[in-house]
Amino acid sequence: MEIRKLIPAQRTELPKSARSNCGVFGVFNHPDAAILTYYGLHALQHRGQEAAGIITSEYLPDKSKFRFNVHKGHGLVLEVFKKHSIFSEVLKGDIAIGHNRYSTTGSSENKSNIQPFKVNYKFGNLALSHNGNLTNARTLREMLVNQGTLFQTTTDSEIILHLIAKSNADKVEDRILDAFSQVRGAYSICIMTDDRLFAIRDPHGVRPFCIGTLDGQYIVASETTALDIINAEYLRDVNPGEVIMFKKNSDGSTETKSMNLDSVEKYKHCIFEYIYFSRPDSTIFGEKVDKVRRNLGKYLSNQSPPPEKESTGDAYDKKTVVINVPDSSNTATLGYFNESVKTNKNIKHEIGLIRSHYIGRTFIQPGQDQRQLKVRTKFNTVRGVLENRKVVMVDDSIVRGTTSKLLVDLVKKANPKEIHLKITSPPIISPCYYGMDFPSENELIANKNNGEVDGIRRDLGVDVLDYLTVENLLKAVPYPDTKTDYCTACFTKNYPIQIDDRSADKQTFDD
User: Which of 226, 283, 232 is nearest to 39 (CA)?
Assistant: First the structure.
C-alpha cells in the first residue's frame, strides 16, 4: 500500500525539574541516512541531552549480508558526533535510526543504556529507538528472566527486542505485532531490521510521532522540527496504534504497509508536550505548538489578568511589565499579553530576563550553592525594565519550585514594586509513568504545601501566584475529532493507562 494513500485517514473516529523524555529519528532508503539522522537529532536535542546515538544498516555485497554500524556516547549530539570520519568511515548504509536520551528508566551513567539498542538473532539484525515508558515493564522483564533471557541494559526498551526475538511468528512484521500485543504504556518507536524500518506508536498516542518525505524516501521523527532542518516535507502523524513498515524491494523501490494494534475509545495525548516539552516551531497531535501555547496564555489572562491601574497615590506611576521566563514560556507570554492589553492599557510587554545559551561546565567552589550559581550563570535581569514596577512573570510550570524561587530572588534584586507569577498549567501533584521525568510526589512543591496555592506563593516569595485551572487548560487545547483527548495525570492523578507498579516513581532495573 502506498503511504500517500494513507494520508487522509489520519484519525479513525532552566532549567526545570521536569525533564524532556527522548527524541527518535529514522531515515529509510537514503544514501545520506546517517548525516540526515545527525541533523534530525540536533533539532530534537531539547528532548534529551544525556546521550545520543545512531545505528545504520549497510549491505555488504561481497558477503551477501547486512551489517549494523553504530556510534553513540554520553553528551550532546555535537559532542558525540564531532568527528566527520564517523560518517564517512563508520556509519555507512542507507537506513538509519537515531536517539537522544534523557533517562526515565535505567541508570543515566550506564553506557549500555544509551540507545539505539541492537541485537543479532536468528533472522538477522534488529535495532530500536524508543521514546516513552512501558507501564508493564517490570512484569514483562520478570517473565523474560524466568525464561532464561539475559539483559544487557537496565532500561524498559530492551524488553521489546527480546519479545520480538522470542516470538514464534514467521514474518518479522508479525513478530513485531506479537511483541506489541504484550506491551502496555507510552511509546513512539523506530525499529530497524536489515532491510526495513518500522514506525510504531502506542494506541493512546501519548507521545508525538510524524512522517515526512525527502527525495522520494521516508523520514520518521518525534517532532516536525526535525523534518524542517533537513528540508523534508511533513506528510502526517503516525496514527495512534499504527505500525508502518518501510521495505526495500529488489529493484530498489520502497514498499510501505500500514498495520494496526488494538484500538482504544479515546486517544490520550500528553498535554505537557504542548505546555513545555515540544518545540514551539513543531506541529504535534495535528496542531502547531506555538498556536496552542499562545492559547494557554490567552486563557490564563482571562482567568487571572494583570493588576489594574491604581487610582490613588503615586504607586502606579509606571506601567506594569509582562515578562517571560525564557525560553519555554516565550509564546505563552505573548498570548497572555495580547489578550490582557485588550482590556488593560496600563501594561507593556518587556524582556526582563536574559538567558545565556552558551553555558558549559560550571566550577563550584566549596560553600557555593550549585543551584544558585547555575541560575545566575544562565539568567540575568534587565534592571531598568523591572525597577520600581509591578512585574508579571509568565512561566509554563512549577515542579519542585527550586529554580522558580531562585529566579524570583534574582528579579527581586532589580527592586520591582511587586511580583505577580502566572503559570500556564495547573499545579503538578503527581509523577508521570509515561516517559516524563517528574520527581516523586513528596518532592513536588504543590504537595509540600498540601495543594494550597497561597502556601506555594509564600514559599516562592511572590506577591501574587496564579495557576491555569485544569478546566481552562482543557479548553485551550485542540480537539480535531471525537477520539482526541489528553492525559492530565500529572495534574489530576487520573492515569489513563494501567500501571503495574507504582511503588517507585520510576521503573528502574539496576542490579
Answer: 226
What is the rounded average pLDDT of the residues 280-290?
A: 97
Domains of the chain as residue ranges with CATH: 3-264 (3.60.20.10), 292-308+315-355+369-477 (3.40.50.2020)
| Cβ atoms within 10 Å, residue 420 | 21
Which pLDDT band holds residue 253 (cuts at 50, 70, 90)? Answer: confident
Task: Dump pLDDT digits (tens) for 111-160.
Answer: 888 999 999 998 999 999 999 999 999 999 999 999 998 898 888 899 99
CA distances for 292 relative to 34, 148, 395, 425, 490, angstroms: 33, 48, 15, 12, 19
Count Cβ atoms below 10 Å from residue 406 Cβ, excluding itself: 22
Say if residues 404 and 421 touch (Cβ distance below 8 Å).
yes
**DSSP string over 37-51:** HHHHHHHTGGG--SE
- Catalytic residue among 22, 210, 270, 487, which? 22
Residue 213 — pLDDT band, cuts 50, 70, 90?
very high
Indicate the average pLDDT of the chain: 89
Q: Is the dihedral of CA 47, 48, 53, 55 positive or negative?
A: negative
User: Residues 143-153, buried b or exposed e (16+ Cβ, 10 A)?
Assistant: ebeeeeeebeb
Q: By the 8 A CB rule, do 133 and 156 touch? A: yes
Q: Please tell me the distance from the alpha carbon of residue 333 to that of residue 326, in angstroms, as a whole number.
A: 10
Q: Which three cell numbers stand for residue 394?
A: 509568565
Q: In the annotation, is 210 catalytic?
A: no
According to the 3-state scheme, what is the secondary structure of 435-459?
CCECCCHHHCHHHHCCCCHHHHHHH
Helix (H, G, I), strand (E, B) or coil at 356: coil
- Using alpha carbons only, how large is the chain's radius of gyration in Å? 24
β-bridge partners, 56: 69, 96
pTM for this model (two decimals): 0.90
Bridging pattern class, strands 320-324 and 287-288: unpaired
- For cell 550559581, the residue is 373
